[in-house]
Each structure stands twice: as C-alpha cells, then as structure tokens.
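Budget justification aside, the reviewers requested a transparent look at the raw inputs and outputs of the sequence design task funded under Objective 1. We therefore reproduce one unedited record. The lines immediately below are the structure tokens for a 485-residue chain.
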C-alpha cells in the first residue's frame, strides 16, 4: 500500500496496461482463451477483454472458474493465447508449468512471491505498482485500462469497470470510490455516460416497490427488516409513508417526495441505531448512485449496484454464461433470464439468513475468531456472500474475524473469511493468515486483508481453524511477516 506518489503509481499502472495491450496485439493469435473468476468483477473484467477482442476481430472463448489451482487450470481448453482476469497473480508458477502461455494476467489480488519478468507472461497487478488492489481498482478497472490501451472505444467498458468495483465492494461509504476507480467514474461522468447522484442505497431503487427495496437491502443489512416482508410493511406504515399509490399500484422510491425520502432516511437511521448498529454502519445507507445513461430506464442494469448484483447472482448460481451474455450486450433473452436468476438468488440468501437467525449453533466462538459451519448446506459459490451478510447484520460477533466453511467439490472444504474493517487497526491481515494456514494443511488460499478464501482438504478443517485462530491472536507488527510467527 502506498502513501506517496499516487499519480506516479497510477502512471506506472497505465504503462503496465499498455505493455499488456501490446503483448496481446502483437501475439499471433487464432484463439484466445480468457480465464476468469465467477464473481461480478470476474465476469465484468472478462467481458471488457472479450468486447475489445471482438472489436479487433480476434476470436476468443471464456472459461469461468472457481479458483486458479493446478487441477482447475489443467482442464482449461487450449488456445494460442491466454488472458487471466481477476485471478492468476498467485498462480504464475502453475500457468508456466502447464504451458498456458503466452499469457497476460490482469489481477488485483495480492500477488505471491514469484518475481516479475517470467518469459511470455505479462502481469498487470496494482500491488506491483504500489497501489492497493483491494480498494483502488478492481480487475474490471484494470481490464478497462487495457482495453483503452488497445485503442478500443467502448462506451460500455466503464459501466462494466464500475460494476466490477462495486461487486468487489471497493467503495468507501463516506468518500465513494478512490484511486483509479474514481478516475474511471469521473471520466464516464465527463463523457455523459454516467450520472452520479447521492441517495438512499436501497435495493431496486427507484423502480421496485418500496417494501421490496427494504426487504432485499443487504448492504448494509437492516436488522429486523432485511428478508422480513411483514416487518418492512409495519415499518413503512409506522413512518406514515403510504404503501400504495391512489391507483392501487405499489409505492416506489421514485414516487416519494423529498419530504418522504428524508422521513424514510431518518426513520431508517433511528431504527438501525436502536438495534445497536454504529452510526458508521447507518451511514452506509447513503451513498453514490451511478446511473448508466445508455441503459434503458426500467432495466435493472440502469444502476451500477444492481448491475453488480445481477452479475453476482448469475455467477454464484452457476449461470455465469447469462452474466457474460449481458455484459456482451444481450438485452433480450439474457436479461429476462438474469432477472429470474437474480430473484432466485435473493430467495436463497433469505432462506440461509433465516436459518442462521433461528439457530445459533451454526456459529462457534474461538479465542480470536469465530467459525460458521455450513457444510453440505450452502453451495461453495454462495458461502462468501453468506459470511459477508452474517457479519454485517450482526448474526455473529462483529468484533472477530469470521471463518465460514462449506463442502466443495472433490472432497474439499471451501473457506470464506471476512472481517470488519475496524479490525485492520489491530494489525490483522486476514488474507495472509488464511493463506498461511491453508498452505500449512495442504490447501491453498489468500485474498485481501478483510476478505479472503481458501480451499483445504476435508479432514484438515480443525487444524486450519486452530492455525488461523493462533495467527490472528498474534497480529503482525507493521512491516513484519505474520507467517514467521
Ligand atoms: Mn475482483
């Protein structure tokens, strides 16, 4: 993470992206294989590259994967050139060993120790340029830089870049985006592609019925309201805002007067504070809304946050093909399917959250961490979302990192680790702890300092948890390596 020389760092990143662009353009390429992660950022990043290749009349296929391990990468289709998006920086040695090159890696996760300058493998990673890839730029943002360096004019690319960053939760509630993300937003605003406003960040604003907007708001979770429709109805009635318009149709955010909006906002904040949430969490209700002016008005793709949610739902319900089709421009079949997938995803989350709410035994407290075992209950692509929601909605202790576990394919256990940002002050780096503990038990893992994941052998969960617990108990002094403790 850098504290000085920001513009210099950004310039270094732009230089690296033109190197990648050049590498791609100069490589003789009949077929390019794009390999990406299944989440919103991964889908958006791969699509930006796919769109650029289309404009340059290059052929490509996209392979969406769960993680860049030897087994998974060993099964990707062969091509003449490989582009990895939203993953790969920790798998350069595997990429080389498997001969998946020439290749470009466009990733914003903390890279492993492999040095730069591997033959035929170009890497674009903000961490290598002293830029915080956890907050300042997503893989989609990087892909956008590459697409621009390739000389491609694509007015959809900034939409995807911003949706990817939103999907990776790179926004800060008070300041919005920072670094490269902010530059991308400002450029798009300047070109008249995006309208940036400030408002209440409820789900489905402005077109969904207001009740549904409350029911499905998960970022932040509204305690006692999220996923409880009857409670939301009672809450709205108590504010005096009518649930129905005179013609009988449901009230939406758009129907509210300024007065109603401020009444709703005040009551929501009061409600959250009364449930013991901090003013900072309540503040998350307000923020920037990024309106995509080229998307037609009633579309869920009109707003960055919903765009990200739709992609997220497609990826996590293993319908990533639909997500990619949306990003590539399909607004017919793909869009109607995506809306169905999106509501199915919300239905499932609601089901898991009520399970956790009604049975405290799923979460067990250890000295320094807490563990949530959902083995065989939650799909391994959804466990991360459940962990985030459980932590932000106080379904578990917000003062400790949360380790959520579920069964994965091939007899492994998938780990999703999350913690509140305030724990950074204690010097905790969850990404490092998870990576180290996973490797110790014969698995692999890593991620960002507040959100990480791992895949470990099924019988090693207890050892893994013990190791993470003790590593978190001994946080690193600044600049030292917690793995050496
Ligand atoms: Mn990402």
């Amino acid at each position: 993470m850098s504290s000085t020389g920001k513009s210099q760092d950004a310039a270094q990143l732009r230089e690296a992206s033109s190197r990648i662009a050049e590498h791609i353009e100069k490589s003789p390429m009949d077929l390019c294989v794009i390999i990406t992660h299944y989440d919103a950022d991964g889908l958006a990043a791969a699509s930006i590259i796919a769109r650029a290749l289309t404009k340059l009349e290059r052929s490509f296929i996209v392979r969406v994967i769960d993680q860049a391990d030897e087994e998974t990468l060993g099964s990707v289709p062969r091509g003449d050139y490989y582009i990895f998006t939203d993953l790969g920086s920790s798998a350069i040695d595997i990429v080389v060993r498997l001969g998946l090159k020439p290749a470009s890696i466009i990733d914003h996760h903390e890279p492993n120790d492999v040095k730069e300058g591997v033959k035929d493998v170009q890497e674009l990673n903000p961490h290598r340029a002293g830029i915080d890839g956890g907050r300042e730029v997503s893989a989609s943002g990087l892909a956008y830089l590459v697409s621009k360096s390739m000389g491609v004019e694509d007015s959809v690319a900034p939409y995807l870049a911003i949706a990817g960053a939103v999907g990776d939760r790179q926004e800060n509630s008070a300041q919005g985006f920072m670094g490269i993300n902010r530059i991308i937003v400002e450029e798009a605003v300047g070109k008249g592609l995006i309208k940036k406003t400030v408002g209440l960040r409820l789900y489905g604003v402005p077109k969904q019925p207001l009740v549904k907007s409350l029911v499905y708001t998960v970022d932040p979770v509204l305690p006692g309201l999220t996923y409880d429709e009857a409670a939301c109805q009672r809450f709205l009635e108590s504010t005096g805002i009518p649930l129905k318009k005179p013609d009988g149709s449901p009230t939406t955010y758009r129907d509210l007067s300024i007065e109603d909006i401020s009444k709703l906002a005040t009551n929501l904040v009061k409600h959250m504070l009364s449930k013991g949430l901090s003013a900072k969490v309540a503040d998350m209700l307000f923020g920037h809304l990024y309106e995509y002016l080229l998307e037609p008005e009633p579309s869920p793709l009109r707003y960055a946050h919903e765009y990200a949610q739709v992609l997220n739902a497609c990826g996590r319900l293993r319908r990533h093909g639909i997500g990619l089709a949306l990003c590539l421009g399909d607004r017919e079949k793909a869009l109607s399917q995506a809306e169905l997938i999106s509501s199915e995803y919300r239905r499932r989350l609601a089901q898991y959250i009520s399970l956790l709410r009604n049975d405290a035994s799923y979460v067990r407290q250890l000295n320094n961490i807490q563990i949530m075992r959902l083995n065989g209950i939650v799909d391994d692509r959804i466990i991360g979302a459940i962990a985030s929601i459980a932590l932000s909605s106080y379904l578990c202790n917000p003062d400790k990192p949360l380790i959520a576990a579920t069964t994965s394919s091939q007899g492994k256990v998938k780990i999703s680790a999350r913690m509140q940002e305030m724990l950074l002050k204690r010097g905790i780096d969850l990404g490092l702890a998870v990576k180290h503990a996973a490797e110790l038990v014969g698995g692999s893992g890593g991620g960002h300092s507040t959100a990480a994941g791992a895949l470990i052998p099924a019988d090693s969960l207890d050892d893994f948890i013990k190791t993470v617990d003790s590593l978190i108990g001994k946080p690193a002094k600044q600049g030292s390596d917690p793995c050496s403790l």
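The chain has a mean pLDDT of 90. DSSP finds 17 helices and 13 strands in the chain. Computational costs for records of this kind are itemized in the attached budget.
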